[in-house]
Design a protein that fits this description.
Chain A: Keywords: 4Fe-4S, Iron, Iron-sulfur, Metal-binding, Repeat. Chain A: It comes from Shewanella sediminis (strain HAW-EB3). The complex is a heterodimer of chains A (190) and B (313). By secondary structure, chain A is of the alpha+beta class. Chain A has six helices and nine strands, in the order E-H-E-E-H-E-E-H-E-E-H-H-E-H-E. Chain A has one domain: 2-Layer Sandwich (Alpha-Beta Plaits), CATH 3.30.70.20. Chain B is mainly alpha-helical. Chain B contains twelve helices and no strands. In chain B, helix 10 packs antiparallel against helix 12. The chains are: A alpha+beta (190), B mainly alpha (313).
Chain lengths: 190, 313
């Protein structure tokens, strides 16, 4: 695997507008009631008048060591050549082991296909055409950056090299590939 | 409340529900019953007559696992594609290994049942199966050994299945497979005595029956110890793991644990030992104790599955 697709969510720039959420639904034809991507607006935190919100992106973390792939009995959940965790719909019987095993709770059963579903970075549609994932393209504040982190000149590589970032639940050893740039609120830094 | 980001229903951490708890119970019961049946036959000096306990195990083993598997299949979102799971294997997956074990265990359990019940078959109008039973009898020893080993595997597998998920602190512990194996043994012993008493009209003072009864106390003690170890591990790990201990004091699953598992599952059988021997060995008392044991193990599977999934790292 020479590619390492990652996504960076800059929580400073995010305004929680859900444009990414809507674009994802429309691109992937996500049925009513289920979702591949949400940006949860958490808060407010702090003391008035200095209140702030947190914008927490909830979507597949594209783990390098994915629990869902390990537990899938049929190999329906697999890691592709490009490193992206995907589901082969016809191999999935719907045992829900992956849904249960996912520490990020981002897998769901698609009510139309009855197979499990989740974000795959628009692998079969936009990525296949050489375009960026729908959420990245549509983001009005450019809070999302997507690309190959193994490519030193890529935007994501530069971003991760210059800004502090964190990943969710790294203590579980899943090595998620969604990086988050935490909100920086005022104050003086040396 | 309506969120700007949409529906939250799919984010419920409880993915596997009571149907899976019943499956885990049935698999444990089947394995436990077979282990006790075969184990007692090996231990017994009389190898020629089939004891009522072995006959009971010969029925419970295949029937319980078949009912359990039926639960499992109908819980799939694509039940009619269940065969896909039989032809594709990911050897990293505990479930795939379990499917392989069950694929051998289930038919072998049926074969062993036919061997043990060969004299019973004509009485039940199943005489046409007698030639099959005759044919299999030559393979008895081999079937028995393989079935015993697979039963240990199936009993522990139900625990490994849910302990493989590192998202849940209460499930992701090494003691769970051991706990499920021993609680399966106690369910197996209880079910064996119910079937032996009701179907094979064994005398409640039967020697084999009391020998099996004698096993129950050490098995239960081991079970209590494993449960204690599970909670201790959570307590000392701290953080999100220790938070999961709240399932012992709050919510509906605390009730299921203290009333179902501790009160009915452990309390009733232990208190029954205080009854005078004459009362304790009546058929009614033995049935009551066995049924409360079964209820306790069923409650334990529900408690572990639901409480375990309710707390996520």
């Amino acid at each position: 695997m020479n590619k390492r697709y990652v996504m960076v969510h800059d929580e400073n720039k995010c305004i929680g507008c859900q444009a990414c959420n809507v674009a994802c639904r429309s691109e992937n034809g996500t049925p009513e009631g289920v979702t591949r991507l949400q940006v949860r607006v958490e808060g407010p935190f702090g003391q008035a008048p200095n209140l702030h919100f947190k914008y927490h992106r909830v979507s597949c973390q594209q783990c390098e060591d994915a629990p869902c792939v390990k537990v899938c009995p049929t190999g329906a959940a697999y890691v592709g050549e490009d490193g992206i965790v995907t589901i082969k719909e016809d191999k999935c019987v719907g045992c829900m082991y992956c849904v249960a095993a996912c520490p990020y709770k981002v897998r769901f059963v698609n009510p139309e296909t009855k197979a499990t579903d989740k974000c795959n970075f628009c692998k079969d549609t936009r990525l296949a055409r050489g375009e960026l994932p729908a959420c990245v393209t549509v983001c009005p504040t450019d809070a999302l950056t997507f690309g190959d982190a193994n490519e030193p000149d890529s935007e994501v590589a530069k971003l991760l090299n210059t800004k502090p970032s964190y990943q969710d639940k790294i203590h579980l050893g899943t090595k998620p590939r969604i990086y988050r740039i935490p909100t920086k609120r005022g104050g003086i830094e040396s | 409340m309506n969120n700007i980001w949409g529906d939250m229903a799919q984010y419920d951490p409880v993915t596997w529900n009571w149907v899976i708890a019943v499956y885990l119970f049935m698999a444990g019961l089947s394995a436990g019953s077979v282990l006790i049946g075969i184990g007692m036959r090996w231990y017994s000096k009389d190898k020629l007559t089939e004891s009522p306990i072995l006959k009971a195990a010969a029925i419970i083993g295949p029937v319980a696992i078949s009912l359990g598997l039926a639960c499992l299949v109908f819980d799939l979102t694509k039940p009619f594609h269940f065969w896909v799971i039989l032809v594709n294997y990911n050897f990293q997956s505990v479930m795939a290994l379990g499917v392989l074990a069950l694929l051998v265990y289930t038919p072998l359990g049926i074969a062993y049942g036919l061997i043990v019940l060969r004299d019973e078959l004509p009485k039940w109008g199943l005489g046409f199966l007698s030639p099959v039973a005759e044919m299999l009898t030559g393979w008895r020893k081999a079937i028995e050994v393989v079935l015993f080993v697979l039963a240990v595997g199936v009993g522990a597998y139900t625990g490994f299945l849910i302990s493989a998920m590192n998202a849940y602190p209460m499930l992701n512990t090494a003691v769970l497979p051991a706990l499920f194996l021993v609680s399966g043994l106690s369910a197996g012993a209880a079910a064996n005595s119910v079937v032996a008493l009701l179907m094979f009209k064994v005398d409640s003072h039967d020697k084999e029956l009391s020998r099996m009864h004698a096993l129950e106390l050490p098995v239960m003690a081991t079970e209590i110890m494993f449960l204690f170890m599970l909670f201790c591990a959570l307590y000392f790990k701290g953080g999100a793991a220790a938070v999961a201990l709240a399932s012992l004091t709050t919510g509906v699953w605390a009730g299921v644990f203290w009333i179902g598992v501790v009160g009915i599952g452990f309390g009733v059988p232990l208190l029954s030992m205080l009854m005078p021997a004459a009362t304790r060995h009546t058929k009614g008392a033995m049935l009551m104790v066995a049924c409360s044991g079964l209820t306790g193990v069923l409650a334990l599977r529900h408690f572990i599955l639901y409480a375990g999934q309710s707390y996520i790292y």
